[in-house]
Amino acid sequence: MMRALSWQSLVAVLLLLAALFQLPLANVPIAMTAPAVAWTTLILVYGFLLAGIGADTFMRSRLWRGIVLFLCAHLATVFLFTLISDENGLARPGFYVVLAACWLLAWRCVEILSGLQPRSRAGRIILALIIPAIFGAWILIIWEAVTRGLGIPFILLPPPSAVFTKLIFSLSVIAADVNQTIFKAVLAGYLMGCASGFVAAILADRFPFMRRGLLPIGNLVSALPMIGIAPIMVMWFGFDWQSKAAVVVIMTFFPMLVNTVAGLAVTSTMERDLMRTYAAGYWQTLFKLRLPAAGPFVFNALKINSTLALIGAIVAEFFGTPVVGMGFRISTEVGRMNVDMVWAEIAVAAIIGSLFYGGVALVERAVTFWHPSFRNGKA
Amino acid sequence: MDMQASQPSHATVSAPSVISAAGLGLTFQTNDGPVRALSDVNLTINKGEFVSFIGPSGCGKTTFLRVIADLEQPTDGTISINGMSPREARERRAYGYVFQAAALYPWRTIEKNVALPLEIMGFSDAEKRERIARTLALVNLTGFEKKFPWQLSGGMQQRASIARALSFDADLLLMDEPFGALDEIVRDHLNEQLLQLWARTEKTICFVTHSIPEAVYLSTRIVVMSPRPGRVTDVIESTLPRERPLDIRETPEFLAIAARVRDGLRAGHSYDD
Fold it and tell me: Molecular function (GO) terms listed (chain B) (predicted)?
């Protein structure tokens, strides 16, 4: 059965035709002595792309169309990249035209996959992961194509493949940095900062004089410039992770304080009157009503703080540290023009930050499942 | 202030009084000056009575209930519950209160919501289980123990909140327009169940409503109130039998009482017009 050609497939066909007038897609590097390889590669790229378009047009099952499109678009991309892999700056305009065709097919693939409604839970989870993964992969593919194809200077923007290679070959160094920055400074600072903000919020709630005195001071602390605080903390707590943890404590304390205080105020008069009719005491009302009700606010602070803590610890390491740590590595490798290492640390920090945030968000879902934002619109 | 027929002679022979208010008044201090919410209320409610408070909004019926519950403090007069001050009565958990909305905590299942007062009052686990099962059966919610409030209909939620108010076995039940937000059919059904529950448990019930049929159908006594300032304009003894099927609402006797309530309400209104 033939459907109307999807617009992505149609444009891809036109791009492939246009690219034929721009051959070759890439300049042949001087060292290359077998032009037949380039032709074979070109035929493979065209073959995969046309197969993908064919599958999109003629196949019946949505799932299989998605799978075949996924494979064809990305295999074509892989072979396309072999054309420019020997040297930087080999790509000619035709290369980008064909890459655009690959990208359109990947787009079509995501469109088809998004329309799927898998019955099993596992299927839904895989789908929820694979769609953003294809998106992210194409950001990297285009980045790679631009940096390699145009021969952009390494110092300005290294291609992702070079960053990845650096990451793999410096795993031991990066692991030591992560251990120093994340598992010592960030984790300790985050736990202490969040816990003290939470306790301060409860004290401020229990004793009105604390609320009047503590909240303005908390406000003041949050306004302190981190750049100024970090060197002072280094002087107070030494070069090791303790001074970074102190910076993280200062950064995370206030969001937790303010959010928890706000959360403790969300209960309705009726809910509080109910506790009063049971002659419940302050702590009973706190633990059975006000803290559970404040849960969404507390988790909000935990999520905000998960990223703040990472930033705080990395920046604080710019102001004195033993010769290990993510911030230390970034600042020294920039000085040595090893930007691939800088990017590798940034990538690791981004991944760990996302995992941290995602972990907190998962716990939030489990704990505040009852909140209207999580219960699928049921009143 | 002219019609304080608060202690009809034939109702007070043997039953001990649960609530007695004398010269009760409450003035709220607001930004627009003082507002008199209650004025010179004299009323005695005896054990086992079902008393409805009816009147237009602003007549002080909810305020009166809140004074009984020690959620508001009176500024004039005296009130005692079982011979105690409202504060003492509240601290001894003398009453269960049902609010206009169910006010179930969404993070607790139905059984955990019913267990809430029991946890606060320190009942043992075994007793908690027994009371949850018993009170949920009383409001026909057996089988819904593990559901969360937001998974139930409005009527079921309000029934769960009644179970919660009953779970610790206070002899006095204060209900503030508990069925006001529910549709007519659910309301009829819940009214019928409430009467059965009252007959079985022999509690004293104070019930605030602004529905005339609801007040007449449920009550042994109807207190008609009028606004500005909130005061009692009429107290009507019901002559209906204790056993009341829903179709009692078509009988001439029922309609006669309803007419008297309506007259009382109208008299209160003509006061401002």
Answer: ATP binding; ATP hydrolysis activity
Give residue B143's Cα distance to chain centre: 27
CA distance B107 to chain A (A): 5
Sequence length of chain A is: 379
Ranges in chain B annotated CATH 3.40.50.300: 1-94+171-273
Of residues B90, B99, B116, nearest to A270 (C-beta):
B99
Q: Which CATH architecture has domain B1-94+171-273?
A: 3-Layer(aba) Sandwich (3.40)
Residue A187 pLDDT class (50, 70, 90 cuts)? very high
Assign residue A92 a region (left: φ > 0; alpha: ψ between -120 and 50; beta: otherwise): beta
For residue B174, which phi and psi values (nearest 5 degrees)?
-105, 125
Domain ranges in chain A? 7-152, 168-367
Neighbouring C-beta atoms of residue A238, cutoff 10 Å: 12
Round to whole Å and give the CA distance between B49 and B204. 5
DSSP H or E run through B162: helix B154-166
Nearest to A163 by CA among A378, A39, A372, A339: A339
Alpha-carbon distance values, A237 to A189, A224, A269 (Å): 13, 18, 46
**Which residue do the tokens 């009383």 mark?**
B138
Contact B107 A271 (CB under 8 A): no
Mean predicted lDDT score pLDDT of chain B: 85
Average the pLDDT over B163-169 and give the result.
88
- The token pair that represents A32 in the structure block: 């290359």
Burial string for B61-92 (b: 16+ CB within 10 Å, else e) reads: bbbbbbbbbbbbebeebebbbbeeebeebbee
Residues of A with Cβ-Cβ distance to B106 under 8 angstroms: 370-371
- To the nearest 10°, the Cα dihedral for A319, A322, A323, A325? -70
Widest Cα–Cα separation across chain B: 59
Are the beta carbons of A379 and B150 separated by less than 8 Å? yes
Q: Quote the tokens at residue A86.
A: 């020997």
Distance of residue B171 Cα from the nearest chain A Cα, in angstroms: 14
* pLDDT tens track for A71-100: 999 999 999 888 887 777 777 888 899 999
CA atoms of A20 and A72, how far apart (whole Å): 19
Distance from CA of A300 to the nearest CA of B (A): 18
Strand partners, B50: B205
Q: Residue B66: name the closest of B80, B86, B47 by CA.
A: B86
- At A122-164, the pLDDT tens digits run 888 888 888 889 999 999 999 999 998 888 888 899 999 999 9
CB A155 within 8 A of CB A339: yes
For the domain A168-367, what is the CATH superfamily, name and number?
MetI-like (1.10.3720.10)
The distance from CA A61 to its chain's CA centroid, rounded to whole angstroms, is: 33
Radius of gyration (Cα) for chain A, nearest Å? Answer: 28
| Amino acid letter, residue A370 | W
Rg of chain B on CA atoms, in Å: 19
Kindly tell me if the per-residue pLDDT of B3 is higher than 70.
no
Residue linked to tokens 């507002």: B35
Of A266, A267, A277, A288, which to mutate for an interface test with B (greatest number of B Cβ within 10 Å)?
A277
Helix residue spans in B14-153 (DSSP H)? 61-68, 86-91, 110-120, 125-138
Chain A contact residues (CB < 8 Å to B): 268, 270-271, 273-280, 284, 288-289, 292-293, 295, 368, 370-372, 375, 378-379
